[in-house]
Each structure stands twice: as structure tokens, then as C-alpha cells.
Amino acid sequence: MRSIRVGIALLLASLCISGLHAQETVAASGSALSGTGGSVSYSLGQTVYTVIGGSTGSVAQGVQQPYEISVITASENWSKTQLEVSVYPNPASLTLNVHAQLLPPGGLRVCMYDLNGRCLLDKPITNTHTILDIGTLSPATYLVKVFRQSNEITVFKVIKN
Fold it and tell me: Tens of pLDDT along 136-159?
């Protein structure tokens, strides 16, 4: 009789333990960073994330977020032009900022292409800071090309959430 009670107790304990949920993954790495603009802590290894957006930007919570800023190509004249061009945030959801220092005479132009090569947005860069409205575009990967006259200066790969 005692062995039946012990067996039932073990069965109930195993059923209770199987219903418990804990952390789904073990974080492989992480750290905390701080600077004049704020602070952030992060960990690597979690596969779930959420995005919270506002009028001035968005923040993605969780880990393994698609964050990638990559220059795909650059013109041979890039070093001679003394231009510094950056595109942020990446990934973006509503707007994309293009920052160019030391605008050359004649200005620059930015075009946003889908992966089929269609130009979806084309805008002149007349100030050091230009905002592209990408809220109506579908979530995908896009190429942002910066041109000086008809010469391609650089290409950025951007992810739209």
C-alpha cells in the first residue's frame, strides 16, 4: 500500500513539474552600455522580441533583433569626396534618417530600392539631415543608394519592420 502512495505522489509531482515554465533559452552573452544619450542593457540568445514605437522612434525589446548597417558598395571616388553619409535607424519602421556631412556643390540624391531593383523613393539631399517616410512600405529588406549627380556614392542595406 505504501508503494502505491509513493507511486501516486511521484506521478503527481512529475505532472506538476511538467506544467512549470521557465526561461525558454539561456542567454549566451550580454552587457550594459551607457553614454550621454542614455543607457541600454542587452543579452544574446533569446529568440522573442517586441517592438514599441512612438512619434520619435522605436525600441525593440528582446534579443536577436535584426540590426544591421552595412555598406554594400562604394565609389572609387568615395575617399576623394570627403563625404560621410550614414543611414539610421536600422531596422526602421516609420522613418529613415539620412545624414550627410559636407554636402558637395550640386548636392546629393538618395533613392530607396526594393530587391527587384524598383526605385520606390527618390529624394534630393539638400540639408545635412534628410528624413525618408517609409511608413507605407511593406516590411522587407531595401537598398538605399546615395548618388552625387549620376554617380553612385554608396549603398546601404536597410531592414524595414
Answer: 888 888 999 988 888 888 888 888
Note whether 80 and 111 are same-domain residues. Answer: yes
Q: Which domain covers residue 93, as residue numbers?
A: 70-160
Quick: pLDDT tens for 45-100.
655 566 777 776 666 665 544 445 555 555 555 444 456 778 888 888 888 888 88
SS3 of residue 8 by DSSP: helix
- Tell me how far the alpha carbon of residue 140 is from its chain's centroid: 11
Q: Does residue 52 sit in the same domain as residue 89?
A: no
- In SS3 terms, 37-96 reads as CEEEEEEECCCCEEEEECCCCEEEEECCCCCCCEEEEECCCHHHHCCEEEEECCCECCEE
